[in-house]
Design a protein that fits this description.
The complex is a heterodimer of chains A (about 120) and B (about 800). By secondary structure, chain A is mainly alpha-helical. Chain A is built from 5 helices and no strands. The chains are: A mainly alpha (about 120), B alpha+beta (about 800).
């Protein structure tokens, strides 16, 4: 249950904050929430990864439909002729991996803080 | 303890990961965008301007007098409806920024020598060159002159429009390139508009042959130099034909003092000739040669073909004028276009307005120089070049009375100052020329307006509804002594420019008896013109154009379209006629006899699917190298170039035993025929060998056209286009140059206009209007240019509407 609430909170807060804050706000939110929830290292990183991956993936996918010529194709060419689908996955990972690291760090900080 | 170590490692990796994703990353030679920022779906590339953002933009802006309505049609042409000129210019600035903001900023930075602030130290050499050339100094001088003009507010209206757009732009909507290079738009200024125009001066009037000519004179001697590099052909089609002797003389047409020219070579200083291809065609037919009985005016400027396109098409209407045409993003007015009374256009004048002078120093520190026996202190201009991710680079450029020290030899013993028209402070409102053109009601007003134009000099052609056609070789031209400015000279007043050629003495004509005007960058006037006119002039396109126009009757728009798309080369025809006279099929190696017979029956058309143009170009390259082995040797140690194509052909036909046909490295004494046959055999050998290897040798594949994005990022470019044409044909398509805007205007009661350019209206690579016109351009198709489209019909059909309201 704690993991599920953490997932929902990360998803909502990251989504809302991203409209007004720079891209790294997702990391900050994951760090703070995993610090507060202390769900364990594995859960902290995986939940952060999945939540932010989904937000970045879906938001990129929705935005791509606003362009005359999909911007995903252009990014694919820029990043070395990769497919549109791979561009969405890379976008999700570029958001998700640092969030996972931040989540892991948040949980670990709590553990070390408590041990003191 | 181990846990703590792991924690510290995780902490470090996390921080590094965020820093990595937040900054530009250098991977081998490619710079990657800051991936975190770039791929952020809330602010990054995914939120760049899209088709929906401005569907109905309605903004209140400070600086407007009245409301302006802009309707974009289905081809993304903005139709601007304003109540007065200033508001129209404001709107022009707004829509140019809306469509081409990065292009404008990039061009201004490229001209100023500021690219390193975007691209890092890989563009430092380019930036240094621009600083030493004094590009920003020239732009600052231009604005200094503009500010003294009474109607300077016209240019500020345009600038306010650009800035109004920039200020209305949210960071998340910055164009894609800003996100790719992690930069933000900077305010637009008059200096930036001046830089855009100076960049055009650099392209069209910013090179000289002083150094190669000096080297060739030194190595070949005067007699051979004059023999191989004459400035005029025996038969020429000058821009303005001499119908009667010139009725004036000049004090300056006398021979330069031989002691003025420096008597030493300058070796390798990168002053080689640039690639052929920049130029333009323009012609106008009088009513007695057209089917409608009304004039037709045509223009196609050949410039670097890029994306976003160099031109933007616009229709601007106020209660006082109604004009349509193309503009350079970043500069107000319509450069090539038409209004309800007339059409106008330009081709470049090759007159040399950039000369180099050897500076004599008065002290070892090079802080003082000697000029006409007197010592002068140099002025220092400190150039600070910002380099992305690195500390600034400081360069100090010395300025003399003649201009900046542009070149210093490696041993430090030779410094050349650059005298360039582009540096001069203008004493007239030159920025007004293309604003004024939009408003002209007859050719007299037009001719008066273009008097203010300075540089790059253009052949301004026009035609009007009253039936007039005319042309003026227009700009500011230095009156020089004969041969002055052709070589590097000693810095002195006597060797500098003496005066300006008076306006009534520049070549010009109206309503000629032959019934047409035409210019294609050839010599402006023939040898009888009293002033010394030197520079780089075109030799073949003009012959084709004049030849076709002399025979044309009942011409219509379709004839003009096919003429602009004509890929015939008179250079190829001249050379192949020579081959037919000189070389029999049995003269070439037996195995090449068949290919030779087919080759000389070619129709001289540079078609993308034909192999003959490739064969001819390969042959010409061999012929040039085999003939000019003496000059190739000079080129190994010093900047130099080969004699022109027409001169080589003339020598083959009139002086076949000339010593230059003898290859120095062989014991045999070759003549012109030997060289031609040898070149043919080598060409056929190479050609068949490459074909046997499976190489596609059709012309389109051999010399494909590449339309690069400004940043040369391949994903934003259109590459490997197989196009008809060559630089010697009317359809002057080169590897990266070509007809950048084809326009045909029939001056009937209701003017009919047609145009196309190889790109699109939008600078946004994800827009359907980014490159949508390339195919039509390739196929020789045109779009109608609708000057008379009503606001009411656009209100119903507009694909996009922008309403600019004055702030209350």
């Amino acid at each position: 249950m704690k993991q599920f609430i953490l997932f929902i909170l990360i998803t909502i807060l990251v989504y809302l904050a991203s409209f007004v804050m720079p891209w790294w706000i997702s990391g900050m939110i994951c760090f703070i929430l995993t610090f507060l929830f202390n769900p364990g290292n594995f859960s902290a990183s995986v939940i952060s990864l999945i939540a932010v991956f989904i937000i970045w993936y879906l938001q990129a996918y929705m935005s791509d439909r606003n362009f005359d010529i999909p911007v995903s194709s252009l990014i694919g060419s820029l990043l070395g002729n990769i497919s549109k689908e791979m561009v969405f996955i890379i976008t999700g990972l570029v958001g998700g991996i640092p969030a996972a690291m931040a989540g892991l760090l948040g949980n670990w900080s709590r553990t070390i803080f408590q041990n003191k | 303890m181990i846990k703590k170590i792991f924690f510290v490692i995780t902490f470090a990796i996390t921080i590094l990961l965020f820093l990595f994703l937040n900054g530009n990353v250098q991977l081998s030679k490619k710079t990657m965008p800051p991936l975190g920022k770039f791929l952020n779906p809330f602010y990054g590339v995914w939120t760049s301007d899209t088709r929906d953002e401005y569907t109905n933009l309605n903004v209140n802006l400070n600086g407007l007098k009245n409301k302006v309505e802009i309707y974009y049609d289905e081809r993304h042409i903005p139709h601007i409806y304003a109540q007065n000129l200033e508001d129209a210019l404001f709107a022009q600035g707004f829509i140019e920024a809306q469509n081409r903001l990065f292009q404008m900023e990039f061009l201004a930075k490229a001209a100023a020598g500021e690219l390193s602030s975007i691209f890092g130290d890989r563009t430092l050499k380019l930036d240094l060159d621009k600083r030493r050339m004094g590009m920003k100094y020239a732009a600052e001088n231009a604005v200094k002159g503009w500010e003294k003009q009474s109607d300077y507010s016209k240019i500020t209206s345009y600038i306010d429009g650009v800035n109004a757009y920039i200020n209305s732009l949210e960071p998340k909507h910055y164009p894609i390139e800003y996100k790719l290079f992690d930069i933000r738009p900077e305010p637009w200024t008059a200096i930036k508009s001046a830089l855009i125009f100076k960049q055009m001066s650099l392209t069209l009037a910013g090179r000289n042959d002083d150094v190669p000519n000096t080297n060739l004179l030194y190595y070949l001697g005067k007699s051979d130099f004059d023999f191989l590099y004459p400035e005029h052909q025996q038969i020429e089609n000058p821009v303005v034909p001499t119908e009667q002797p010139y009725q004036f003389d000049t004090l300056y047409g006398k021979q330069i003092s031989p002691t003025a020219i420096i008597e030493k070579p300058i070796l390798k200083a990168n002053f080689e000739r640039r690639e052929k291809g920049i130029g333009s065609n323009s012609w106008g037919l009088s009513g007695n040669r057209t089917a409608t009985g009304k004039p037709i005016f045509c223009n196609d400027p050949h410039l670097a073909l890029g994306l976003p396109s160099i031109w933007i098409e616009e229709h601007i209407q106020t209660p006082d004028f109604n004009a349509y045409g193309v503009s350079f993003p970043g500069f107000p007015g319509i450069m090539i276009g038409f209004n309800e009374y007339m059409a106008w256009g330009e081709t470049n004048v090759g007159q040399d307005v950039q000369d180099l002078f050897l500076v004599k120093w008065a002290d070892e520190n090079k802080s003082k120089y000697v000029f006409d026996g007197q010592e002068y202190n140099v002025d220092y201009r400190v150039e600070t070049i910002k380099i992305k991710g690195q500390k600034d680079y400081i360069d100090t450029v010395k300025y003399t009375k003649l201009g900046p020290i542009y070149y210093t030899s490696d041993d430090g013993n030779m410094d050349l100052a650059m005298r360039w028209l582009c540096h001069d402070e203008p004493d007239v409102d030159e920025y007004n020329v293309f604003i004024h053109a939009m408003q002209c009601k007859n050719h007299l007003e037009f001719l008066e307006g273009i008097q203010k134009y300075i540089s790059p000099a253009q052949n301004f052609g026009f035609a009007d509804k009253e039936g007039n056609i005319g042309l003026r070789v227009n700009g500011r031209f230095p009156a020089k002594f004969d041969q002055d400015g052709r070589f590097v000279e000693y810095a002195s007043q006597n060797n500098d420019w003496q005066a300006w050629i008076p306006l009534d003495q520049v070549p010009q004509y109206m309503n000629p008896e032959r019934g047409f005007i035409a210019s294609a960058n050839q010599v402006s006037a023939d040898k009888t013109y009293p002033y010394y006119f030197t520079g780089r002039f075109e030799r073949y396109r003009n012959k084709t154009i004049n030849g076709q126009l002399e025979n044309i009757t009942n011409a219509n728009v379709e004839d003009m379209k096919s003429m602009q798309h004509n890929s015939y080369s008179s250079k190829a025809e001249d050379y192949i006629r020579m081959l037919k006279r000189l070389v029999l099929p049995q003269d070439v190696k037996p195995e090449f006899k068949d290919i030779y017979v087919r080759f000389i029956e070619w129709n001289f058309e540079y078609k993308a699917e034909s192999e003959y143009p490739t064969l001819f170009e390969m042959f010409y390259d061999k012929l040039e190298v085999n003939t000019w082995d003496e000059i190739t040797k000079i080129k190994e140690t010093a900047d130099a170039f080969y004699p022109e194509e027409w001169r080589l052909l003339e020598l083959i036909e009139t002086d076949p035993a000339n010593k230059y046909f003898d290859i120095q490295s062989t014991s045999k004494k070759e003549n012109a025929k030997d060289i031609v046959i040898q070149s043919l055999n080598e060409t056929f050998q190479d050609f068949t060998a490459q074909k046997a290897d499976g190489t596609d040798l059709t012309w389109g594949s051999y010399k494909p056209l590449n339309i690069y994005h400004l940043t040369r990022v391949p994903a934003l470019s259109v590459l490997d286009i197989h196009a008809d044409g060559c630089t010697d044909a009317i359809n002057a398509v080169g590897v990266s140059f070509g007809p950048s805007w084809r326009m045909i205007i029939s001056l009937e009661d209701k003017i009919q206009g047609y145009g196309v350019f190889p790109g699109g209206q939008s600078g946004n690579p994800t827009s359907k209007h980014y490159k949508n016109m390339i195919n039509a351009w390739l196929e020789g198709k045109y779009y109608p240019l609708n000057l008379y489209i009503s606001k009411e019909s656009l209100m119903k059909s507009a694909a996009m509407t922008v309403k600019l309201n004055p702030e209350i």
